[in-house]
Amino acid sequence: MLHKHCAHRRASLEFARIEQRGIRCCYHGWHFDVDGTILETPGEPEDSKIRHEICQPAYPARELKGLVFAYMGPPEATPAFPYLDSLELPGHDLVPYSIHSPCNWLQETENAIDPFHSVFLHGRVNGPQFPGLEHFVELPVCAYHRRDAGIVYSHARRTGDLVTLRFHDYLMPNLAQNGGMFQKMSQPRVFGRTSLTKWVVPIDDTNSRKFGWRHFNDADEVLRQGKRDAVGWESVGFYGQTTGRPYDEQQRNPGDWEAWTSQGPINVHKREHLGATDEGVALMRARLRRDIRAVAANKPIARPEGTPDAPFLTYAGDTILRIPPSNDDRALLDQLQRTVAEIYFSADALNGEARSERIRRDIAARFPTGVEVTS
Ligand code: FES
Ligand SMILES: [Fe+2]
Questions:
Q1: What is the pLDDT of residue 5?
Q2: In this predicted model, what pLDDT tens digit does every residue of 300-321 receive, in sequence order?
Q3: Alpha-carbon dihedral sign for residues 236, 96, 1, 105
Q4: Closest CA to 233 of 217, 215, 203, 211
Q5: Which of 59, 193, 239, 267 is most buried, judged by most C-beta within 10 A?
Q6: Ligand 2 centroid from CA 92, angstroms
């Protein structure tokens, strides 16, 4: 990945020509290698030294499933790649997408660790916005499970005899995975997986761009919403995620995009009044401050790192159990999500199908009647 403006006189390399090796500026034909070395300055005298004296700023980049990742820090501190287990889930078709938000990156990132906004924005205030997730209107019982590289959080809700335990990943500093979207919540399931993986990347203080994948799959997107070819630049194929709707429609039925961009170009934290339901936001801000201090002091921080053979393990997705209500049902829901989280984490030595099988086996052993599917 090269700096946009040419080292010669700053014409944009977006209009440059891709060469067999590197790229050639459209303006005066300077030819750059992929690492920024100048290979040719064709209009300059034969004996010109200029190409040895400067280079085009460049960063190593890697393409993966339609997204390009670049590392822009000091080369000696290059971290391992954030290769997640969710990149290779059986039956998942990952479709890349990217959406701009005219606000600070933290606002959208915080939305992903705020399970209570779903109750109101996607339910009680505006009516249900996501098919299959109508139960969001119930106030959940939440638990935040602290992990080295971030926070896994769960929210539990009851619908009759069924308890939905929905897990999300927040990974430092800007990566999040949702639970399954658009599925049928009408019967037990164990260790459902994510259907959305996304990074919110700052462009500057007041602009950000999300890059991620929709996971089209039959297990967790049963009610398949959005078309594969409607997911891409400025579109993710479900409600309320982008700009461009008429203003009166935004007002009548605002979505996530209206919520996080309307906090302003940079939300002013000292003017907020956080309540008990903002525990996730407060936790992630504290974690972020801790990591910022560590980076400033040249200390290591935990981050999601992995390889295709040893991917970074994630947990986002749904487990639904058939468990009758108790007298103190909120305490029961809390206990259930903590027990299931422990079972998830206890399989961390495994990955892939072996891990999923172990988790399914242990949950079935712990809740033998909870996982029975009745017709
Ligand atoms: S500005 Fe690029 S070659 Fe002159
Ligand atoms: Fe939302």
A1: 98
A2: 999 999 999 999 999 999 999 9
A3: positive
A4: 211
A5: 193
A6: 22
Ligand approaching nearest to the C-alpha of 26: 1
- Residue 260 alpha carbon to ligand 2 centre in Å: 9
Task: Give the closest residue (by CA) to ligand 1 atom 1.
Answer: 9
Q: Is 9 in the pocket of ligand 1 (CB under 6 A)?
A: yes
| Residue 69 beta carbon below 6 angstroms from any ligand 1 atom | no
**Closest atom of ligand 1 relative to the 16 alpha carbon:** 2
Helix (H) or strand (E) holding 55: none
Q: Are the beta carbons of 224 and 216 closer than 8 angstroms? A: yes
Q: What pLDDT score does 77 carry?
A: 86
The pLDDT value recorded for residue 375 is 63
Of residues 69, 63, 61, 65, the one with CA closest to residue 96: 65
Q: How far is it, in rounded angstroms, from Cα 339 to Cα 363?
A: 9
Residue 10, C-beta contacts closer than 8 angstroms, at least 6 positions apart = none
Q: What is the pLDDT of residues 137-184, one digit of tens each?
A: 999 999 999 999 999 999 999 999 999 999 999 999 999 999 988 888
Alpha carbons 60 and 53: distance in angstroms, whole number? 21
Q: What strands lie across the sheet with 17-18, from one edge to the other?
A: 17-18, 23-24, 31-32, 38-40
Task: Report strand pairing: 17-18 vs 31-32.
Answer: unpaired
Mean pLDDT taken over the chain: 95
Q: Write the CB contacts of 133 (distance below 8 Å, at least 6 apart in sequence).
A: 118, 122, 181, 182, 185
Using a 6 Å cutoff on CB, does residue 5 contact ligand 1? no
How far, in Å, CA of 183 to CA of 222, rounded? 5
Element (DSSP H or E) covering residue 213: strand 207-216
pLDDT band with cut points at 50, 70 and 90 for residue 267? very high
Residues 209-243: pLDDT tens digits?
999 999 999 888 877 777 888 899 999 998 999 99
Q: How far apart are CA 292 and CA 299, in angstroms?
A: 10
Single-letter amino acid, residue 66 = G
Ligand 1: centre distance to CA 31 (Å): 9
Place of tokens 């103190």: 328
